[in-house]
Prior knowledge:
Strand 3 and strand 4 form a beta hairpin. 43% of the residues lie in helices and 15% in strands. The termini are far apart. The protein has helices spanning 12-24, 43-53, 91-97, 102-113, 128-137, 143-152, 167-180; strands spanning 5-9, 32-37, 60-64, 68-73, 117-121.
Amino acid sequence: MTKTVIGLYDDLADAQRAIQELLTNGFIGDEINVVANKATGDTTAASTQGAIIGSLAELTSVTIPGIGPTVAAGPLFSSRAAEKDGTRTNLLDVFLNAGVPWERSHYYAEGIRRGGALVIVRPPDHMAVRAVQIIHHYGPVDVDQRARQWRENGWRGFDAEASSYSKADIERERQVTEARA
């Protein structure tokens, strides 16, 4: 049975470091997926991400309802996962097809909406523990705690019809998150 190891990062650079370490430790591109909100506006990180992800798979720009423009790579985000027009994908369906439970799928989608970067690893069973160690080493978000914070402010679940976060919205979100930490 294939395990799924997931890390949501507030900082794209942390996601990049996790991906690089996964690759250095023998994980292959077909086992690693990443999706990040493009609205972060960090062009240096985006180009670095492109270089790192280039070894995973083709970096794809997709529009995700409720999130807006994103960058993604890996088999979960290949053209097979995209809709017929090749530019839109239903993120919750991608997560559910990867075996992510419904509630957590909403957490991860909302985390990306709010500017996060998500790394999804589908390692062979004998490498699952190492994947977890690497993902945790780079400080992923505690999604349960984050979802509680969102709920305190009225969040009820990921809404694909919601407005996308702008760069300014993402920056405000990060300031609020940092203030609570």
